[in-house]
Every structure is written in structure tokens, then in C-alpha cells.
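Inverse folding, one chain.
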């Protein structure tokens, strides 16, 4: 059964992260410059942080700080021992964005690096950055249309990267020591009629869970790139997915009303519900915890 966590309509909910230390789900509403938090034990959702930047993705450090990947650069949002967030984020890295470019989704690798992808308003020449402590950000992929969901295989030998517009998920060989990727191969090739692959996550059986923007569904994809299962969502634009919960068998799905005409209700010009709520459903397989960002 699919249920909304609560009735808030987000403009562009994205990048959900399960934080096992405080048993909470976090996500960003990119176009509103917000991070939200859902507490599993209390069942309550609240605005966690709001700033003057578009946060396309974020990651937690072992200390509980948050690394923000935004349209204004990469920042650290520090958390005190009393749980209070710093009043002002600290700039870590400037990024030479093109006009109309911003971060769109990120992930953390097994060594604590951040891989952060961008998109431009013209949906051309997006990039994938590798960001590592003590080093300048490095571009490791270019000419991406819409850089989206990313994850790593259970054995840490492969890196998956989504380019939404051509409906592809590409699998690369991954070098744990350097963070570099190589030997690309198309893992999944879809088409616009079946929806655009967006945010992804991995379960403990090495299968991908993929939000399909425009198709009102999440699909589970096997290790050989075949669709195994489809979960229908009561929103046209699912944007990303994350597995969490007390037993690591809850699938959380963010959705968005980006492009709609009534953002307050999440509707398009014909009155169709595009999205904006965050949903939850139980699945029969466990997920994998995300790695912390070491900065």
C-alpha cells in the first residue's frame, strides 16, 4: 500500500537520504531551497533547513554535518553537539557553473567522496563532478543531458549513472582507490513513452529501484538490466527513491509538480496531479545504508 508521509506539496522534492543514526528520512525541495525531515518514531515531518540556494543534493558527515551541493557552490552546514544547525553554511568549493546550470543529484562513494551531477536549463552539456577532501573538484563526465540518480553495486566494483533525457542508465567500472570510473556500458535503455529514469537506489540483492518521471511508477531492475517489478504511484512525476525505515524495508518516493500551473495543489493546466508529496510503501527486500561524506 502506498501512503503519503503527510500532505505538504513540494515544488521539486528530490535526493531523499535515510539517516539511520537518528531514524529519519531527509530530502530537498530544490526550487524552494529547503531540506525536510521525517521522523519515523514520531511520524512527524518538519522543515529542517531553509536557505538562499538551490540544493540539488546533500550528504551527511560522520559528525552529523551536512554537505550541501547547490547552485552557489558546495557548502558545509555544521551541526552542534546540541543538534543546532549553524546560522550560515561554510563554503568549501566554488564550482564554475555555466549560465543556468546547477547540481541536480548526488551520491557518496564508499571512500566518502561525493559524486555530484549537474543540469543546465538547455538540457545540454551537464557534468559529473568528483569532490574529495583536500582536492579541487574534478569533472569526470561531460555532455550529460540531465544528470540524475547514481549508486554503486554491492561489491563496489560498478558505478551506475542516470542520464534522464535519453532514458539511459550507464554502468561503469569503479576504482575504489581513486574514485575514477571507466568502461561504460548501457545497463538500461528506455524511451520517453515508458517514462524518464530519474533518482535511483540499490537494494541488498544488487537490484536498482528507479523512479520514472512522467510514468507514475517506480520500477525494480535486475542485475542484467531487466524490469522485475513495477509499483504504481498516485503522482505523474516520481523524482527519486530511498530505502530505509526501522527494518530497512520501507521504500520512500519523492515526487514533484515542477512544470505545473497550480503549484499549491501540484496540478498541471488540465487539472492532473503531477506530484509534490513524499510517499512510503513496504517492500520485501532490504536496502543498503548510504556512505558518509568525509569532509
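Residues assigned per position:
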Amino acid at each position: 500500500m502506498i501512503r503519503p508521509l503527510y500532505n505538504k506539496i513540494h515544488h521539486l522534492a528530490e535526493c531523499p537520504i535515510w539517516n539511520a543514526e537518528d531514524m529519519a528520512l531527509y530530502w530537498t525541495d530544490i526550487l524552494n531551497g529547503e531540506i525536510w525531515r521525517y521522523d519515523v518514531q514520531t511520524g512527524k515531518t518538519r522543515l529542517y533547513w531553509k536557505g538562499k540556494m538551490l540544493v540539488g543534493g546533500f550528504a551527511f558527515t560522520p559528525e552529523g554535518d551536512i554537505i550541501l551541493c547547490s547552485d552557489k557552490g558546495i557548502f558545509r552546514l555544521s551541526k552542534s553537539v546540541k543538534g543546532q544547525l549553524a546560522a550560515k553554511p561554510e563554503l568549501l568549493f566554488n564550482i564554475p557553473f555555466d549560465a543556468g546550470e546547477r547540481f541536480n543529484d548526488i551520491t557518496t562513494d564508499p571512500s566518502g567522496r561525493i559524486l555530484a551531477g549537474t543540469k543546465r536549463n538547455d538540457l545540454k552539456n551537464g557534468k559529473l563532478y568528483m569532490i574529495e577532501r583536500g582536492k579541487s573538484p574534478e569533472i569526470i563526465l561531460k555532455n550529460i543531458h540531465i544528470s540524475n540518480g547514481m549508486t554503486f553495486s554491492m561489491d563496489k566494483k560498478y558505478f551506475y549513472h542516470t542520464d534522464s533525457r535519453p532514458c539511459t542508465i550507464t554502468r561503469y567500472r569503479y576504482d575504489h582507490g581513486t574514485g575514477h570510473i571507466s568502461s561504460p556500458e548501457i545497463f538500461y535503455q528506455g524511451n520517453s513513452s515508458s517514462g524518464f529514469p530519474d533518482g535511483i537506489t540499490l537494494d541488498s540483492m544488487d537490484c536498482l529501484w528507479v523512479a520514472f518521471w512522467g510514468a507514475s511508477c517506480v520500477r525494480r531492475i535486475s542485475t542484467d538490466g531487466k524490469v522485475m517489478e513495477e509499483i504504481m504511484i498516485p503522482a505523474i512525476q516520481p523524482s527519486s527513491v530511498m530505502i530505509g525505515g526501522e527494518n530497512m524495508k520501507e521504500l520512500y518516493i519523492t515526487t514533484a509538480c515542477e512544470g505545473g500551473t497550480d503549484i499549491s495543489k501540484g496540478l498541471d493546466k488540465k487539472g492532473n496531479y503531477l506530484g509534490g508529496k513524499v510517499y512510503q510503501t513496504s517492500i520485501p527486500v532490504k536496502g543498503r545504508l548510504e556512505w558518509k561524506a568525509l569532509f
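The radius of gyration is 17 Å. The chain has a mean pLDDT of 97.
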